[in-house]
Design a protein that fits this description.
Length: 390
Amino acid sequence: MADGGAARVGVAAEDRVLDLTAATRLLLPEHAALFAGGTLDALLAAGRGTWREVHAAVAGWLADRVSVRALEPFLVPAGDVTMRLPFTVADYVDFYASEHHATNVGRIFRPGAEPLAPSWRHMPLGYHGRAGTVVVSGTPVARPRGQRRTDDGVVFGPSQRLDVEAELGFVVGMPSRLGKPVALDAFADHVFGVCVVNDWSARDVQSWETVPLGPFLGKSFATSVSPWVVPLEALAHARVSPSPRASRLLPYLDDTGSGAQPWGLDIDFVVRLNGHVVSRPPFSSMYWTGAQMLAHLTSNGASLRTGDLFASGTVSGPAPDQRGSLLELSWGGAEPLSLPDGTSRTFLEDGDEVVISATAPGPAGSTVDLGEVRGVVHPSPPAVPGPSPG
C-alpha cells in the first residue's frame, strides 16, 4: 500500500486495509522490522516459524472486536490505497498442471491424435518465464509484437490472438541449497503463500515459436499478479485430495502413501471479461499440486531463492464454462464466445478488461478472499524502426 509515496505492507480487512508497517511498531514490535521496507521480502525470508507467529497475531487482532477498535488508527479505506507489487520476484516458473486444460489444448491443436504428451502424467511440465515482466494488478498490458505465421508467410507485428490464463501463483519464502531437492513434505517450509495470476499469452506468437523449444516471447511480455499474497496458514480449511492419478508416480512425486498429506486446494476462480463472467475454473480439479510442482522444480538440484514465484498454469475444469483461457472458451477461435452485451470474442481486443478473482473456504463456514488481478489491453506500441539501408 502507499501513503504519501511511502510503501507499506497491508492486510485486507473487509473494505479497509490494515497498515501492518505502522501497526506492528506498536502491537508487534519484535517483528516490526520485517515490514519496515514496505514489501513482504523480509517476512518471506524469516521462515515458517515467524510466518505462523505473525499470521496468528494478525488473525487474532482482526477477529477480536476490542483489538479492532485499537487498530482503528491503522485502518485505511481500501479505495484510498494504491497497490504495488507485494514482493521482489526472483525467478518465475510456469507449469502446465491442469489435465483438463492440457487435454483441451491438445485436442485443439492436434485433433484426432493423443492430446497429452507421453510425459504429461509422469511429471508436472513447465517452463522458465521472465521475472522482470511480472507486474501488479492494474498495470496496463500492451499488446505484444512478434513473429507469427500467416497464409502469406511469416510476418512481424501485433499479436492477433492475445489470451488470458487464470492461474494460482505460489510465493517462495525460504531458499534451498543448490544440489538439494525439496521433498513433498517440505512444501510448507519453503512456500509462504499464494496469489492470483493472469499469465497473458500471445497464442499466435507462441504457436510459431514453440517447436522445438517451447514458450518464449509469446509469454514473456507480461504476467499480472494480485497484490495480495494469502499465507498457506490461512488455507488450512481449503485442503482437499487432488484428482485421481492415472499413472503410478515416481517416489519423489508420490503423495498417496501412508502419512502423506496431499496439497490439493479447494479454490474457486471467476474470470470476467469487460464485467461479464465468462468462466468459473475450479482449482480442486488440478492434476498436479503445488507441492509436486516444487518437488519437480528442484528435483535436479535447482535451488530456490526468496521471492521465487511459480504458477500452476491455466486452471480449467471438466465443464465448458470452467475453462480458464479464451483459447479453450472459443475452441481455438472456431467457436466465438458470446457476451451478454451482444458482442463476441475469440481472443482479446484492445480496450478489453480482464478481472480474475478467487476464493477458498475458511473456518466455520467463512470464505477466504484471495483478491483479484485485473488488466486492460492497450494497443501495441509503435514498431521499432528497422536498420537503415547500408
